[in-house]
Design brief:
alpha/beta, binds S-adenosyl-L-homocysteine
Length: 254
């Protein structure tokens, strides 16, 4: 049970598998006004940077679930490194359908909303693990400019223009699902560069170390094509944000 190998290769050196930077991740944690001891659930926790740094900086406790064996091992190592291994737990597994035994103060899925079939399904899944008054955190791309053609959307590695919304529509869609947007942290092109360009050096070094690997041809093709594709499409058209949500019908307990 694992994610496609190509991601375990291209993102093996990433601490954050999204266009959000370490600084913005810290600012987001502060913006959510996390209390010491707050329980954070993270579906698709990657290499664990959010939970580990928030445990170190804000005293949260956390549980992360991720389908990548490699990323989950990296998350456990990161927790040791930051001295928070007693406060965070990383589980290697499928987060689809995962509901926590103990309700979370923050229930997050940052850049993995396919886990429950899209934004709406993921919010519904996270809501089942959320305590009254808690916050749902969703990380999701949006169009900074609407692609003029479906081919441009595909150039951004989306299946279709309809995969993503413009920012105002994305924010409105949370409202239609019955949620207030209570905070947000948007990525910028520098953050996108950290996420995307960091893959290139990783690929280059992996190719040098694994010339005979059955994946070498695919990695070589990606490394050759990616800088230009990224600059032409993703960097121009795609935005990304972390969105904090609270249910509107949360009542007095919220
Ligand atoms: N939230 C992390 C990782 C985002 S990348 C961060 O911001 O750094 C998306 C993550 O989803 C990857 O780590 C991938 O391994 C994980 N993933 C993909 N499908 C999954 C599934 N079904 N269950 C759990 N994790 C999954």
């Amino acid at each position: 049970m694992d994610i496609p190998r190509i991601f375990n290769i291209t993102e093996s050196a990433h601490r954050i598998h999204n266009p959000i930077t370490a600084e913005k991740l810290a600012t987001l944690g502060a913006a959510l006004r996390l209390e010491p001891g707050a329980r954070v659930l993270d579906l698709g926790s990657g290499s664990g940077e959010m939970l580990c740094t928030w445990a170190r900086d804000y005293g949260i406790t956390g549980t992360g679930i991720d389908l990548s064996r490699l990323f989950t091992e990296q998350a456990k190592r990161r927790a040791e490194e930051l001295g928070v291994a007693r406060h965070v737990t990383f589980i290697h597994g499928d987060a689809a359908g995962y509901v926590a035994n103990e309700k979370a103060d923050v229930a997050a899925c940052v850049g993995a909303t396919w886990i429950a079939g899209g934004v709406a399904g993921t919010i519904a899944l996270l809501a089942r693990s959320l305590r009254p008054g808690g916050i749902i955190l969703i990380g999701e791309p949006y169009w900074r400019q609407l692609p003029p053609t479906e081919a441009v959307a595909k150039g951004c590695l989306a299946n279709a223009i309809a995969d993503f919304l413009m920012l105002p529509e994305l924010l409105a869609s949370f409202g239609r699902l019955g949620y207030d947007v209570v905070e947000m942290m948007l990525a910028d092109p520098d953050g996108w560069d950290r996420y995307e360009a960091a893959k290139w050096l990783t690929m280059r070094r992996w190719l040098a170390a694994n010339p005979g690997d059955e994946f070498a041809k695919e990695v070589r093709a990606q490394l050759t094509a990616e800088p230009e594709r990224y600059a032409t499409y993703t960097r121009e058209y795609l935005g990304w944000g972390g969105f904090a949500l609270m249910p509107r019908d949360g009542g007095s307990s919220a």
